[in-house]
Amino acid sequence: MLSRRKMLGGAGAISAAVAAASVSKVAMAALPEPVIQAKPDTMPPLVPNTGRPYNPVVTLNGWTLPWRMNNGVKEFHLVAEPVVREMTPGFKAHLWGYNGQSPGPTIEVVEGDRVRLFVTNKLGELTSIHWHGQRLPNGMDGVTGLNQPGIPPGKTYVYEFVARRPGTFMYHPHADEMVQMAMGMMGFWITHPKNKHPLIDEVDRDFVFLLNAYDIDPGASTPKIMTMVDFNLWSWNSRIFPGIDPLVVRKNDKVRIRIGNLTMTNHPIHLHGHEFLVTGTDGGPTPKSARQYEVTTDIAVGQMRQIDFLADEEGDWAFHCHKSHHTMNAMGHDVPTMIGVDHRGVAKQITNLVPDYMVMGERGMKDMTEMEMPLPDNTAAMMAGTGPFGAVGMGGMFSVVKVRKDQKAGDYADPGWYAHPAGTVAYEWTGALADPARFKAEGNTSMPPKGRPAQDVEVRARKPGAGRGHGGH
Ligand SMILES: [Cu+2]
Fold first, then answer.
1. What DSSP character marks residue 80?
2. Position with higher pLDDT, 23 vs 92
3. Bridge partner residues of 80 (DSSP)
4. pLDDT for the residue 77
5. By mean pLDDT, which of 127-136, 231-240, 282-291, 377-386 is the weakest?
6. Which residues contact 195 (CB under 8 A, 6 or more apart)?
7. Cα of 382 to ligand 1 centre, how many Å?
8. pLDDT at residue 334 tops 70
9. Would you call 208 helix, strand, or coil by DSSP?
10. Cα(397) to centroid(ligand 1), Å
11. Is residue 452 pLDDT above 80, yes or no?
């Protein structure tokens, strides 16, 4: 079977696969050959060479599934299968996905297209695909047991419907969802508008990615599927920083980013240096009267948000989830807070017993980013990434929007770090420091107490046992 698959190494290979699939009369009569992607890189946009034209999207650390036209029907072939996904260099996860990767490839069609999707199940259990957000016949909606029987292992089912409304949709199994989605089975679907649409502006760059999350113990490679809230890998398209590619744009480009959330919690996604408008949701384009400028938009579970902005500020702009625990990689949550605790005596005593003992976090956790600490094999660093000024100290749901005036139209190659014009970087003050003047009203409250306590009480250290549990991420 593997010999029938097309292994991809780049966009050229994608079009070669399309060409090969579209010339063979024998192939036309049979299933479209599944196209498999071997690499976790961001592939260039797949410019359509058949069917209605459209402006393709770029899937962050992902790709668009090639199709073939068969008597006016756009045919795709998805293969549900176990995959090995490199989540960041040095860390590979054993996931389930589609066509060689998790998430699966993005599917791009045009409003009004008739679409036929062959879905082959190479898992060891039933699966199905639900086409999240689409208008379609009820029997094509993919809920196992309700709309169709589950697809048994080894079998191929066919879904067929017309992409009726333009927008951004997702696809995922509706069979043993808890396991199959926790294992990484999901993908994006874009239906481009057929004509100029009053609520859908044309943009220069159009990025898409899914928010997903895994719980993989350090040193392990398979997600713990029973986890409900306490995930330790917060990812974009099953990649974690520093493994997430930058979003590279040209200065003054109109930029769109479409983000879908298939994790178990909300993610306030925050862009630095620009304001954006939320121009669309899973329900379709947002009416202009309901749009407002934002720098953070919260994406709830099962939602998609489409943001548009003008990239008119040059630089390397952070773009991340604003939940600070979601910009870190696998960590032990049961580490006590040690800020302000003087360990010196204790550390010395322990070092006599355990020579490699290391105290952690008494000045904060930033030291972790510069520590050359041995990690178990196949483990992502908790906070990583090095920028032009040193350790970035991030993980998880973090990337950079790189805005450059000399980036060529259609060029997504990483231009390297931004060269700041002289005098535009925060700098060290080396002059004299005056004593801070105390604010005059310091100590007053709106309702002053009648008497002061006999002794000021200062809470200095975290008590053992206090604040246990971490269910509220
Ligand atoms: Cu988040």
1. E
2. 92
3. 98, 121
4. 97
5. 377-386
6. none
7. 15
8. no
9. strand
10. 7
11. no
Where are any strands of DSSP class E within 63-186? 68-70, 73-88, 91-98, 107-110, 114-121, 130-132, 156-162, 167-172
> Which are the contacts of 233, defined by CB distance < 8 A and separation ≥ 6?
87, 93, 213, 214, 215, 216, 240, 329, 330, 380, 396
Q: What is the biggest distance separating any 2 CA atoms in the chain, rounded to whole angstroms?
A: 92
How far apart CA 115 and CA 13 sit, in angstroms, is 23
Strand intervals (E) in 187-325: 187-192, 205-214, 233-236, 247-250, 253-261, 267-271, 276-281, 284-285, 293-294, 296-299, 304-311, 315-321
Q: How far is the CA of 266 from the centre of ligand 1 (A)?
A: 6
| 276 CA from centroid of ligand 1 (Å) | 19
Distance 323 CA to ligand 1 centre (A): 5
Summarised one tens digit per residue, pLDDT across range 107-123 is 999 999 999 999 999 99
Residues of the chain with pLDDT > 90, as a percent, come to 59
- Quick one: pLDDT at residue 435? 78
Where residue 19 falls (left for φ over 0; alpha for ψ -120 to 50; beta otherwise) is alpha
Higher pLDDT, 453 or 195: 195
What is the rounded CA–CA span in Å between residue 127 and residue 251?
44
Q: What's the pLDDT tens digit per position in 51-85?
A: 899 999 999 999 999 999 999 999 999 999 999 99
Q: What is the DSSP letter of 346?
A: H
CB 85 within 8 A of CB 93: yes
CA 449 to ligand 1 centroid distance, Å = 41
Indicate whether 13 pLDDT > 70. Answer: no
pLDDT at 465: 54
C-alpha 261 to ligand 1 mean position (Å): 10
Handedness of CA 238, 244, 245, 250 (dihedral sign): positive
d(CA 458, CA 116): 67
The candidate with the shortest Cα–Cα distance to 259, out of 290, 303, 292, is: 303
pLDDT band at 34 (very low <50, low <70, confident <90, very high): confident
Confidence of residue 225 (pLDDT cuts 50, 70, 90): confident
Distance 63 CA to ligand 1 centre (A): 23
- Cα of 268 to ligand 1 centre, how many Å? 6
What is the C-alpha separation between 361 and 436, in angstroms, rounded? 28
Q: Residue 150's pLDDT is what?
A: 97
Give the number of other Cβ atoms within 10 Å of residue 428's Cβ: 4
Spatial contact of 186 and 209, defined as CB atoms under 8 Å apart: no
Q: Could you please report the per-residue DSSP string of 403-442?
A: EETTPPTT--S---S--PPTT-S-----S--PPPPPPTTT
CA of 75 from ligand 1 middle (Å) equals: 35
